[in-house]
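During the reporting period the student researcher (J.K.) took over the structure-prediction task from the postdoctoral fellow and processed the backlog of single-chain submissions. One of the processed entries is reproduced below for the supervisory committee.
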Amino acid sequence: MADRRYAPQAQSESMGLKRLWQALMIAFLAVLVTGCQTLLPKGPQRTDQTPTTQPTGPGVTPGLPGDETRHRVALLVPQSGENAGVGTSIANMATMALLDSKSESVRITTYDTAMGAANATRQAIADGNKLILGPLLASDVKIAAPIARAANVPLLSFSNDTSVAGNGTFLLGYVPSQSVERVVTFARSKGYKSFAALAPAGPYGERALAAMRSAVKDHGGAVIAAERYDRSAASITGAVRRLGRVSGYDAVLIADGGRVAVQAAPMLREAAGADMRFLGTELWNTDSSLAGAPALRGSWFASVSDGYYGQLASKYRARYGETPFRLSALGYDAVLLTVRVSRDWKPGTTFPINRLFASDGFGGIDGIFRFDNLGIAQRALEVSEVGAGGFKVVDPAPTKW
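J.K. obtained the following structure tokens:
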């Protein structure tokens, strides 16, 4: 097991970027923190992420505060194996959130789930952690949850698989059904009544289709057709052709990433006409190739806002010398939430799980969110339109519940 501590500021970060970021983050964090806020290593690897900021002043003992004055929080992410890049990005963002919030009452230790989620969870609990941030994968959540539940330690997972939520397990991940519901509702408000869909076979596609049908029904529209496909080019082409032979719809949901959308759009555009509107999911938010496809111009998709994340990613690149994974924002927001709750949480005691159900929710890099009664993060989403040069917001995310 290895411990490491992070320097408060990378030497490579320029002073200009530092001053700009500090000014932005002071204002932003004032709202977030006070407002509605496969190689298997030998044994558990842990990384202490407590920043090395030391308190000063009369009566203050030099060095980091003892554990009796700090909340012990575990971060369970992969730090080796095929998902190590995502896990490392989340861990680095967690460190940045501790530094930016200037919290000295929270200690976060990272445990590598690539060695086994069960071992990582047991070690985290044995070390006295009262809250677990993670795991990342739904398969790991299923393993970790009963172990944590038996110890009365809640999980704030980064998964978006709603089947693992509840009974002490909370989801921070971006749930696709929410983006589908948001964009379909927006399309109905603009007069689109008849919908069709292309969706991949499997859980993601099924959940997207279920969300579309529910949203269309709730807002008085009609679903004309839906076609599924596997990930092969031939299967996608076949599904597009079948859908192209159907008439009567004025909007098509493509519940997949940019590669499929770029492939399918020209054929569907030719079959359905220039007035047909394409709709996408949160997967479109990080795919710049969409803007280079003329057939997708004017398409709409719903996702979390990228405004603050863009600034955070710039700071991350300056500090760590690489671009973070988009999911890493969940690590930052999880720490901001923990810092907020820590104000009324006595160190060493059971985490006050009822605080997670605050009606006014929490603020984060990705905007406001709150947990429903199943422990699923309900997020305020914006609707963007695909243009020739990129994306533009056509319906901003709400700023309060």
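The committee noted the following: The two ends are 43 Å apart (CA to CA).
J.K. will present the remaining backlog at the next meeting.
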